[in-house]
Amino acid sequence: MSPKRLTKKLKKRLRRERKKDPGTRLWPIAWVAVIVALVAAGAWWAHQPLLEASYFQVSEIQIRGNGHVATGEVLSRLGLREPVNILQVDLGELAGRVTTHPWIQSASIQRAPPVGLIITVEEREPVAFLSAGKTYLLSADGFILEEVQEPPARALPTLRPQWRAKVRAGEHLSEPRISKGLELLEALRKTPLLQQAEVTEVTAEVDGNYIVHLAGGRAILRLSAAESLPQFNRLDVALRRRGQGLESFTYVDLRFPGRVILNPSEKGG
Question: Do the domain assignments include residue 45?
Answer without folding.
Answer: no
